[in-house]
Amino acid sequence: MTYCVGMMLDRGLVLMSDTRTNSGVDNISVFRKMYHWQVPGERMIAIMTAGNLATTQHVISQLEERTKAPADRHNCLLEAPTMFQVASLVGKLLAETIHEREHFNGEEGQGRFTASIIVAGQIKGMEPRLFMIYPEGNFIEASYDTPFFQIGETKYGRPIILRGYDRTMSFEDAVKLLMVSFDSTLKANLSVGLPLDLLVIEKDRFEPLHARRITAADPYFQQISSGWGEALKRAFYSLPDYSFEE
Amino acid sequence: MTYCVGMMLDRGLVLMSDTRTNSGVDNISVFRKMYHWQVPGERMIAIMTAGNLATTQHVISQLEERTKAPADRHNCLLEAPTMFQVASLVGKLLAETIHEREHFNGEEGQGRFTASIIVAGQIKGMEPRLFMIYPEGNFIEASYDTPFFQIGETKYGRPIILRGYDRTMSFEDAVKLLMVSFDSTLKANLSVGLPLDLLVIEKDRFEPLHARRITAADPYFQQISSGWGEALKRAFYSLPDYSFEE
């Protein structure tokens, strides 16, 4: 499993992903699921992936044209004229990769190679955009009615985002909100694991405002993880008490 | 879908279930999923069900021997000498009901008639017990390492129970905790719906301490539902702020 969230704010985009992959609980590894590319002053594009790791790595390699010698490569993400075309391209590559592998493996390949992708970014002269790409290659775009997308293990960490999100919030608060959401998920599902990758894309900046890896030793994450339990209990006890009297 | 929780406390057992059944989002109904039986002064037994409604209603009917004329019926739950035997009996009826229906429908019946059951209760001279019964008829029992069971849509409402549960808590606090857990689930999954059924089984009482239906108009539930969002926000803002400085 995996947990990734992409969130749209008035001031830009915030992305967080875990790094655990597993093939059974007895076989876990750390792999990056967040990738980003930039043309300073012109575009900033990020991708997060969930699902079959061979599928998603294949899509990323195709985007970067790793079949060619380094000198001959053109990253097509850096040439697409709009974010809509970026999403279309990623969707096409994802659907083709899954289809090819399933087709090759016949009936027993059905559903085994599936994956989903979040695409986020901005190209100069246009607004920041956030898309969720389905395994079939089609996609949806976030709006302020539904301003965030989650992929992978989405349920444990969803209630706090639904309650805490505000489009005007600061990047710092958005990072805190995502850390709480990830902490709830990490505590409930072994197949989501530290470290986390964090990327903050400020509107019209066209390079990462902030990009880092959050490990288990991160003092701020530790504060959130231990503090949230206490804060939740205080919140719980601040609510009016139930009474058995009607 | 469904959401039911059974929780073991030092002072007894607390059970809550929703009442929504659906066959597609365009076909929803209200059905009771919580049942209880008592022999005053001797035993108090409760069951909550998730899964195929025809399956679970059939199990309940079998337990109450509804195939017979009312005068000839013996509720075998009221005759089993221990809670372990109650759980075994429910497991046997559940597995047989599912197996029979799947077998009758051949390959296309596989998995369509499945269900899970929580059994809770106490028989005089023994401790209160809490079991989760699988569709295969086998079952597990709660202990103070894992003091609650959830069936149905378990994920949205799990983090708050993990953080808020304490075996020494009052029944009133446990009801509040379950209401918060149900509220988070109701807000995230349309297939879990009001009203809720609540049952509190006090140790050595052998009749319900408290049993009622909580509707959308319930003033306490409304207070929890609206207050929890604000309390969560206060909890969130009480945590230390993230800083982009390393």
TrEMBL record, chains A, B:
InterPro entries: Ntn_hydrolases_N (IPR029055), Proteasome_sua/b (IPR001353), UCP009120_prtse (IPR016545). It holds the Pfam family Proteasome. CDD domains: proteasome_beta_bacterial (cd03765). This is Peptidase. It comes from Novosphingobium bradum.
